[in-house]
Write a structure and sequence with these properties.
399 residues; alpha/beta; 7-stranded mixed beta sheet; 5-stranded parallel beta sheet; 7 helices; FAD/NAD-binding_dom
């Protein structure tokens, strides 16, 4: 198998990976190479069009910026696994190859769980999509989607799926969420319900896909025990993202129990020296603009590592219910941290976030708004210098 060396290998050519590669190459880092298993760089924005956001244009600008800065972007190449601490085995149009870099950056993103992974019963008929599959079918391939659709979810991405369906000429029968109310912005939700007359069914779960060959309906179970059926030929499962962490898992990197992505500190350093992670593989999911900015921040820390900066030991940062996860989730007390990103499983009215270590309170912060599931919250990071490097795990709670 062929083997060669690069200075930085970035796995994943979405906004985070491309922004990082462009910043590194523009800053004088020698050989920066980006691998993308798809045939085109740019990640999810390539097939994301919605009001106020030109996803294909966004993706194209970042891909062009990386190449213009001097990075090499290779598409149709898959990272299969590891053959050493940093060496990555790949396969692409030119055949198998091992790339042995000085630093690896995992920017592999996240994916939506399909109906099968959500344990929805049924025969898997045609007409079942995730949001990403829907957007690709409509915007990349111009496929016929169907006539009557049910959207599972009521977060921002769910309303984007509604826009895609309506733009494709599909009637939206209903939106279904297992939570007590929607998790999108108020104006969009009101417009959907009143302007477009799309019912929002709350505290309900899709339990079965009906139909053989083609979807004919979905069965719902309501919180009060009722069961109903909605007639439709299309269903779109939205949200419920999981990090695409397969390469990290194969490499034996520590995964955070909350995010299920690689555990990282504020410098985007994983548990293995020389391996960084950035973007939605760390926190599923943030916007394309947010992860691109994260890629720019991470580039500085990769450059510091190439210059010989030490790989500092860390202390775990853990969350307690109803919080679901926080990122970063490892603490290097000597570092300066940007605000932490976290999410909750429940609606919380102006909660107080409390950070403790060994029964010592490090920080308290009251949020000024209601914490909403499927929306990110921010925690100030200026308290990290108070963490005892020799102490126990740091814990984050919300009340």
């Amino acid at each position: 198998m062929r083997q060669r060396h690069v200075d930085v290998l970035v796995v994943g050519a979405g906004p985070a990976g491309l922004a990082l590669a462009a910043r590194l190459a523009a800053g004088g880092v020698g050989r920066v190479e980006v691998l993308e298993r798809e045939q085109e760089a740019g990640g999810v924005p390539r097939h994301c069009r919605r009001r106020g956001f030109d996803g294909p244009g966004f993706a194209r600008r970042y891909a062009e910026a990386g190449v213009r800065a001097g990075a090499t972007v290779r598409t149709g190449v898959t990272a299969l696994g590891w053959s050493g601490a940093l060496a990555v085995d790949t396969v692409g149009p030119a055949g198998p190859e091992t790339i042995d870099p000085t630093a690896v950056v995992l920017a592999t993103g996240a994916r939506e769980r399909p109906g099968s992974a959500r344990l929805v019963a049924g025969t898997r008929p045609a007409g079942v999509f995730t949001t990403g599959e829907l957007q690709q079918a409509v915007h990349l391939y111009g496929q016929d989607i169907g006539g009557r659709a049910v959207v599972v979810g009521a977060e921002a991405l769910s309303y984007a799926a509604v826009d895609t369906l309506l733009g494709a000429g599909v009637d939206v029968v209903a939106m279904v969420t297992d939570l007590a109310r929607h998790q999108g912005d108020r104006l969009t939700a009101v417009n959907s319900r009143l302007g477009q007359r799309i019912p929002l069914l709350t505290q309900a779960t899709v339990t079965e896909l009906r139909g053989r060959g083609r979807l004919s309906g979905v069965a719902l179970r309501h919180r009060d025990g009722r069961t109903t059926t909605l007639a439709c030929d299309t269903v779109v499962f939205t949200g419920d993202f999981v990090p695409d962490h397969e390469l990290a898992r194969r490499g034996g990197l520590d995964l955070d129990t909350g995010t299920r992505g690689p555990a990282v500190d504020g410098a985007f350093r994983t548990s293995r020296e020389g391996v960084f992670a950035v973007g939605n593989v760390l926190h599923a999911v943030e916007s394309a603009g947010a992860v691109a900015r994260e890629g720019v921040r991470a580039a500085r820390h990769v450059r510091d590592h190439l210059a010989g900066a030490p790989w500092s030991p860390t202390v775990p940062l853990l969350v307690a219910p109803p919080l679901r996860w926080v990122a970063p989730n490892r603490l290097a007390p000597a570092m300066t941290y940007a605000p932490f990103v976290l999410r909750t499983a429940e609606f919380l009215a102006r909660p107080v976030l409390t950070v403790t270590q060994d029964d010592r309170v490090l920080h308290r912060q009251r949020l000024l708004t209601t914490a909403v599931p499927n929306r990110s919250l921010c925690l100030d990071g200026r308290w990290v210098g108070s963490v005892d490097p020799a102490g126990g795990p740091v814990r984050l709670t919300a009340r």
